[in-house]
Amino acid sequence: MMKVLTANRLSDGIAVWLGANGQWLENIDNALIARHEAAADALDEAGKSAFNANVVVDIALIDVEEQDGEIYPIRLRERIRATGPTIRLDLGKQADLKQASAA
Amino acid sequence: MYRYDEFDHDFVNQRVGQYRDQVERRLSGELEEDAFKPLRLMNGVYLQLHAYMLRVAIPYGTLNSTQMRRLARIARDYDKGYGHFTTRQNIQYNWPALSDTPAILEELAEVEMHAIQTSGNCIRNVSADHFAGAAADEVADPRPYAEILRQWSSNHPEYSFLPRKFKIAVTGAERDRAAIQVHDIGLHLKRNEAGELGFAVYVGGGQGRTPIIAKKIRDFLPEADLLSYTTAIMRVYNLNGRRDNKYKARIKILVHETGEADFTAQVEAEWKKLRETSLKLPDADLASIASYFAPPELQDRAEGWARIATGKKSDAGFAAWVHQNVTPHRHPDYGVVTISLKPIGGIPGDASDAQMEVVADLAERYGHDEIRVSHEQNLVLPHVALADLEIVYRALLDANLATANAGLITDIIACPGLDYCALANARSIPVAQEISERFGSLQRQQEIGELKIKISGCINACGHHHVGHIGILGVEKKGAELYQITLGGSGDEQTSIGQIIGRGFEPDKVTDAIETIVDTYMGLRLNADETFIMAYRRTGPAPYKLALYGEASKAA
Prior knowledge:
The complex is a heterodimer.
Chain A: E1 2-9, E2 15-18, E3 24-25, H1 37-52, E4 56-67, E5 70-73, H2 76-83, H3 93-102
Chain B: H1 6-27, H2 33-42, E1 45-47, E2 52-56, E3 62-63, H3 65-78, E4 82-85, E5 91-93, H4 101-110, E6 127-128, H5 143-153, E7 168-171, E8 185-191, E9 197-203, E10 215-222, H6 226-240, H7 251-258, H8 260-274, H9 283-292, H10 303-314, H11 316-325, E11 326-328, E12 334-339, E13 350-352, H12 353-366, E14 371-373, E15 379-385, H13 389-398, E16 413-414, H14 429-438, H15 442-448, E17 453-456, E18 470-477, E19 480-487, E20 499-500, H16 510-524, H17 532-539, H18 542-549, H19 552-555
Parallel strand pairs in B: 6-7, 7-8, 16-17, 17-18
Antiparallel strand pairs in B: 1-2, 2-5, 3-14, 4-5, 4-13, 8-9, 9-10, 11-12, 12-15, 14-15, 18-19, 19-20
Helix pairs in contact in B: 1-2, 1-4, 3-12, 5-9, 6-8, 7-8, 10-11, 14-16, 16-18
């Protein structure tokens, strides 16, 4: 099962995902995908060190699939974290995306 | 209403100062998360799916226009322009930055508010009848006692590390609008035959994964003994409540496992030692707290009767709203106005900053500066002259706050659910929205009559599904949402826990199932005066099972 590493940023609690360059991204699209166990372990380690460095909290490795080249979390909970409240499309990541595409 | 004295101001300001320092140390890395998390929780700051969440206490659901305006300002300046009123009569903000939370608490302290004890294993915000001090059927205002309990329990060292959270509710009328029988302690303020005030004391009620109706352990407790008796209960619980298992740690489990008689005997024995101590409330203190809640001086406004009669004739919308959302006040020329936060298809309990401002303005101008938050996630203007109802209605209408559905099928309680909450297993709000849309016709709602639907997105039951006439519980099954329906719950003076009617429904089938249940009720009720819950109590679940699951249900 493919996995990505997610957390909430300490300072503002915003949901973030670990990217390939070691940065925490506000969007899941460019999260680093672990495709085998060793890679997942490495993500896990990176998460612990970010937690210990007081960058993020509530770290979790989550199961994802790739659908049409896009990262798709398996659990609804994680899909909602990745997009925003399903009943307020003007809030959360989905709103930022809309703004970006409108710009 | 209660005003902070010097001690209260000092206490809250000191707490803000401590918290500001804690946040600074956390952000600088000096404090680690494990050390910080309990500190932020003690100040109402949770971490949810998308961001932090701040839960602000609204003691017994009472606030004034200044406080409401401040809540609006916080929504605007620090959040995303709205707040969510909860089933604990509190307000939650869904998007505050941790770094902003000290400033928010400072803003709250300026208007005598805080977020203390809105989380953690302590005595939480004491809730009360949202019509307190106004309702025609009230024996006495329960809020002075709620305030006494608040002062006594705030930062009380003995109750800072209870086995589990602890919730107290107080009501002052026979009609229980505060759901006291599903609280850890429920207090029913009443008079004895001699005309003295006191309480029937209920203990060990609660919802969550093990719903239990409270036991009445004392029929009449003199008001002066409120704190000694409550202390006795707390001591028995604190000593014997289970700390080995989070799911068995609430007092309801202790009462259940100990047995009502034995538990009551333990409380009474403890009380004997405490009754004649300094915990006895002196009359002067009772009077002094009560004076803060002195009812506003209401002038006779008899012209209101003719005015609303004319208004109702010329405007069916106004007539419907008066009929549904205005409750009798103890002064005949006044009414208690329920401001619905349940627009058709809307998000139950959410209010924008602009709406909060409108409510604050109306309270100030026409409502003796009083506002209430109900556990049903609506707002209340408790003292509005009938003569002013129409102007209040027009202003509410402009702000999309005049939905005439109080107590009807679209007046749905719903927890934030999986759209926000880290504990949730399924969404609640979209389910509420779809049901609301389906039953949106006011005429249909009125034909159906009183029907309370309550929805929770997990077993913790913040949406009170156990006491919904129709309760809906969202669960996760095989990675998908599934909704269990319970029937026959009720959170009033005839409290009952709803029973699961059968197998659950997929998200796209829930509203149809609710409609089937409602149609079944409409078909079997004796007449329009037999409400859903009355009819259910008469027939039991069988007709509903048959309608939902067909003949196969009979074998089950």
